[in-house]
Amino acid sequence: MLRYTLMRLGIFVGCLVAVWGLVHSGLAPRGLGDSNGLWIILLALVISAPISLVVLRKQRDQASERIVQRVNRAKANLEANRNQEDAADETARTRTQAS
Description:
single chain; mainly alpha; 3 helices; membrane
């Protein structure tokens, strides 16, 4: 998951540098008034999102599989704990009924 996040951040930073260069060279439009910095960041986000979607598909799928495995493991642990509690409760009830 960390690898995917770092790769996504790298793509955004690359787009940010490229957009900054294009805006300051005059090839891309500048923002209105003092909004130039915000314009550059928003334009970089809009450009980097589809690039990340296509380029990082494999890493995103791997991260998703790891998350699903963790969730399934946590569910299994919860079920095992629940079964232990049920067994202990049954044992306690049986002992009190036998006494």
